[in-house]
Amino acid sequence: MKRVFQTINLRDGSGGVDGKTLSPSQLAIAGASAGLANSIVSGPVEHIRIRLQTQSATNPMYKGPLDAVRKIFAEKGIAGLYKGQIPTLWREGPGYASYFVAYELLMQREMATKGIRREEIAASHTILYGAIAGYALWFTIYPADVIKSRMQTDGFSPATGQKYTSTMDCVRKVISNEGIAGFRRGLVPTLIRSPFANGATFVGFELAMRMLNG
């Protein structure tokens, strides 16, 4: 998507000499597109991960990831594997949009202010900007992440402890039973972990891009 916008920018005479400086709206579209594409894989993967993490340690239902995939698919088909996919889409689209907009605008600002190339930005600054982008991501997506997690740990039927009949039913019940605070449950530990994980992510991203472009 970034290459598409680069081509458009070169045609329109925008985005700098090489057209690589994307506008905030272009960054948001590129990020959201990446997030939505990623959700095709991340939705079922996170569903299986959450099932395994929350199952009983003394009487586990699943022996491992492949066993979980087999059993869920046998009982509920593809729809079972993609349980919680709607809030996953709510999370990944806006989340990745805010993630990359925050990071890229900070990188663009430093390059413009100092008159330097992207590869000349210090790794410490990359870590800082990645950490800030991580906070932008989590503040944007956390309510959707809460709903996603609840849907993906919910039973598949009333006989297996199903609490929510749909995504909107889950939203309504969280508001009714816990208020707005229910959408912030677990946010503090997430924010404590976030800067380290996302700072490292973007250092790796920049190094990979330099290798691919070099």
What is the residue-mean pLDDT, rounded to a whole number? Answer: 94
Number of helices: 7
Alpha-beta content class: mainly alpha
- Biggest sheet details: none
User: Radius of gyration, Cα only, in angstroms?
Assistant: 20 Å
Strand segment count: 0
**Could you tell me how far the N terminus lies from the C terminus, measured between alpha carbons in angstroms?**
20 Å
User: What is the approximate shape?
Assistant: elongated
Which percent bin holds the helix content?
Answer: over 70%
- The helix-strand sequence is HHHHHHH
Low-confidence stretches: none
β-sheet strand percentage: under 5%
What does this 3D model show about the protein?
Helix 2 (24-54) crosses helix 3 (65-81) and helix 4 (85-114) runs antiparallel to helix 5. Helix content is 74%, strand content 0%. It is elongated and about 65 Å long. With 214 residues, the protein is mostly helical. The chain has helices at residues 2-12, 24-54, 65-81, 85-114, 123-153, 167-178, 187-213. The longest helix has 31 residues, at 24-54.
